[in-house]
């Protein structure tokens, strides 16, 4: 059985939720914070990041969007068909969330990589929060127009969006300003499969 590596609080929650939704035969191994930089895990994913999916033959797949695509292609049900308009839009949504929104979180998570002095770091963070505010506005508008799920029907964009609705609490931004996202977070947390994924990543509903 493949093993999905996760760590509390991280974007690896998205494929973890997808595994729970699909009831896919995947073992979830939740690393303690810090173990992602130790030799044992670096031998699996030299990037030192989660998520990573290790197959029984030793092959390793990284990048949340790629892991979600593999899960859908291999274990997808009618709900998660890939060769549909929804599948295409799902790839678009996941690319946006992983490569644009997540990337703009980088100064929040590791500002020292972007500036040295305290004042420069504060400036970089201020710009990052402005960009994130624009992203959340766009995500909220899209979800508000789509209904209960980001693409109208349930897709793998939703677990990733759920992660983003959690991370906002760590920033000066507030989910209260994004009512569609706030209602979505509540709906996702009422889902037993989401609760199962949270528990195996040592996390709680917010
Ligand atoms: N582009 C990667 C990003 C993965 C990533 O940034 N993972 C974070 C958690 S959300 C991580 O492992 N951070 C630990 C570190 O970089 O030290 C993806 O989408 O999977």
Task: Characterize the structure shown.
The protein is α+β, with helices and mostly antiparallel strands and 206 residues long. It has 2 domains: 3-78 and 196-200, Glutaredoxin (3-Layer(aba) Sandwich); 79-191, Glutathione S-transferase Yfyf (Class Pi), Chain A, domain 2 (Up-down Bundle), CATH 1.20.1050.10. The chain is 53% helix and 7% strand. It has a 4-stranded mixed β-sheet, covered by helices on one side. Helix 1 crosses helix 9 and helix 7 (157-167) packs across helix 8. It binds glutathione. Glutathione binds next to loops. Residues 10-11, 36, 48-51, 63-64, 98 line the site of glutathione.
Compact summary:
The protein has 206 residues and is an alpha+beta fold. The chain has helices spanning 13-22, 39-42, 64-75, 85-104, 106-109, 118-146, 157-167, 179-189, 192-200, and strands spanning 3-6, 27-30, 52-54, 60-62.
């Amino acid at each position: 059985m493949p093993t999905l590596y996760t760590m509390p609080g991280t974007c690896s929650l998205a494929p973890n939720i997808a595994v729970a939704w699909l009831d896919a035969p995947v073992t979830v191994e939740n690393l303690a914070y810090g173990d992602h930089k130790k030799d044992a895990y670096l031998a699996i994913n030299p990037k030192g990041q989660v998520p990573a999916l290790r197959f029984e033959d030793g092959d390793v797949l990284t990048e949340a969007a790629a892991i979600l695509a593999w899960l859908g292609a291999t274990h997808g049900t009618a709900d998660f068909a890939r060769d549909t308009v929804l599948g295409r839009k799902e790839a678009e949504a996941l690319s946006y969330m992983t490569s644009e929104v997540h990337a703009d979180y980088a100064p929040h998570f590791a500002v020292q990589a972007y500036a040295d002095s305290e004042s420069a770091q504060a400036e970089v963070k201020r710009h990052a929060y402005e960009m994130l505010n624009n992203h959340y506005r766009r995500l909220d508008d899209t979800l508000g127009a789509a209904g209960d799920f980001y693409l109208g029907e349930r897709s793998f964009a939703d677990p990733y969006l759920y992660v983003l609705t959690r991370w906002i609490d760590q920033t000066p931004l507030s989910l209260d300003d994004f009512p569609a996202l706030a209602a979505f977070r509540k709906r996702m947390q009422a889902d037993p499969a989401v609760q199962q994924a949270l528990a195996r990543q040592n996390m709680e509903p917010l």
